[in-house]
Amino acid sequence: MTNVIIEKITAKEVFKGGRIKVMITTMTNVSVGYDIIEIEDPKGAIADVENVIAPEIVGYPATDIDFIDSLICETSSIDPKVACGISISVARSASNSLDIPLFKFLGGALTTDLPIVSSAILVDKNKNELIPIVMAESVEELVHFYLKVKDKLSKKYDIENISGAFVCKDIFEEVEDIRTIIDEIKEDEDLDILLGLKSKKDIVKNRDLSEIDYLEVEEPCEFDGLLCTDSIYEESDFVKINPYEIGTITEMNYYINYIFEKALSPVIYGNNSSFSHIAVGFKVPFLRADLSSNVLNEVWNIERTIVNPNIRRF
Fold it and tell me: pTM for this one?
């Protein structure tokens, strides 16, 4: 087997999604991998990649991701987004060198479980979101659901934002109507669908949440359904993970396992298609991404490569 040695790591500005972002590329003797990050100081990030981290990891095997990530962590004052971007680009170069998908490189060849993918379908000016959570048998069923619900919502709402969600004045005035629409699809398609809400603790205080099954807030509040919080709490059912706030893939894996040890479920939150592979590889049951992102489509691609795939339920 050929040793997969990191030969060069570069970073450059790219224009993507209407914004300047940074593309980090890892080149080995047999493969290439990349990741694109959005960061406030692109030029500073490029300098960190090429002048601080690259000299520390060039010459080492890309396939030893734990070791590479330990070297990244030892560098001083590196933004977690930069660390995550480099870690993903190295892991992608390693998986490409082995001619296997990233999720198999991270989780093994026998990985079969897929996460539920949920996206906001309605938002308001205060960034409150309504989120259907569909327990589908296949990704195709999930895609069909979103096409159907968007068709129904397009008859009621005029504005759709860049994230793929429709816009209203006040989410809480729309909950009953959205619940009705979802229940109609639930009956027509024979699907189990929960209705989720993303908001703030102070905003939901004293609100009627009887139609809500799943609630995303920054910290625990009084709620009878499934509760997702930003950090680990005893009252939580789910804990949100933003990979770009954690750092390397290895650090992410440790945190995910720690959440599982606390009898909670991690939720990966973000629009990078690599997160689909990380979720599958690390057995994360739930992915939250914008409908306009490529995350759901990437999970669909992953499903096609797996024998007897299984979408998780909760």
Answer: 0.94
